[in-house]
Amino acid sequence: MDFATWLAFFAASWAISISPGAGAVAAMSAGLSHGFRRGYLTTIGLVLGIWTQILVVGVGLGALVAASSLAFTLIKWAGVAYLVWLGIQQWRAPARPIVQASTEVLPRRARDLIARGWIINALNPKGTVFLLAVVPQFLELAQPLAPQYLVIGLTLGFTDLVVMAGYTALAARVLGSLKSSSHVRALNRVFGSLFVVAGGLLALFKRGV
Questions:
Q1: Count of CB atoms within 10 A of residue 199's CB?
Q2: SS3 (DSSP) at 167
Q3: Which residues lie below 8 Å from residue 155, measured CB to CB, with a gap of 6+?
Q4: Left if phi > 0, otherwise alpha if psi is -120 to 50, otherwise beta: which for 60?
Q5: Distance between first and last Cα of the chain
Q6: What is the pTM assigned to this prediction?
Q7: What DSSP character marks residue 115?
Q8: With the C-alpha atoms ordered 41, 106, 118, 21, is the resulting torsion angle positive or negative?
Q9: What's the pLDDT tens digit per position in 72-102?
Q10: Residue 184 in contact with residue 33, Cβ under 8 Å?
Q11: For residue 178, what pLDDT is reported?
């Protein structure tokens, strides 16, 4: 991949990362519930999920998912169920102050936050189909593909780390400015609803789109 091609993909990566979706909702939800420092762990999981998708596309399994109705449907509905479950959990989350949330330093909880982000992006056939449609436009097929997929993965990972940091910080800042537990509870329910909406949109997604 030459520099001009990478520059075009780099610009596209920002648009991909900034566009609202389940990842943005997850980042803001984590910032709301845990503050920036711990909430940002979810973004690490989101990036790992993106890299999983790129690996799947790179080894050719993405084409199988896009072509197989059964594989696509199973993965899609697993993703839908997980997003709806996250929505219910967020809706029912207690309105804890940000200081209390940020002082919880349980390793198991950190792993859970990373795993949550990974599942959101890894169980998203829409992402697989999107990568299958977009990534080949930036590949030089006459050149080795593995280094190009590596560059693409690192580029998408970088832009997501930056953009999701903004989303996480925004939500953490909002929570830090709230004094009323009823306001925090209301925000929890807003983000819970957004997860359910994201699940609904994924349910409506079809391979031909």
A1: 21
A2: helix
A3: 6, 9, 10, 13
A4: left
A5: 28
A6: 0.73
A7: H
A8: negative
A9: 788 778 878 877 887 787 787 766 554 444 4
A10: no
A11: 63
Structure token digits, residue 191? 């983000």
**Measured CA distances, 45 to 36, 138, 209 (Å):** 15, 25, 26
CB 157 within 8 A of CB 50: yes
Q: What number of other Cβ atoms are within 10 A of residue 73's Cβ?
A: 12
Integer Cα distance of 206 and 203 in angstroms: 8
Alpha carbon distance 138, 136 (integer Å): 5
Residue reference for tokens 């990534």: 135
Helix axes 107-122, 22-39, angle to 10 degrees: 160
Cα-based distances in Å from 40 to 26, 58, 88, 103, 168: 10, 27, 21, 15, 6
Could you read off the pLDDT of 100-141 as tens digits, one per residue? 444 444 334 788 899 999 998 888 776 777 777 677 777 787
How many other C-beta atoms lie within 10 A of the C-beta of residue 129?
21
DSSP 21: S
Handedness of CA 12, 166, 127, 143 (dihedral sign): positive
In the chain, DSSP assigns E strands to none
Highest mean pLDDT, choosing among 28-32, 48-52, 77-81, 171-175:
48-52
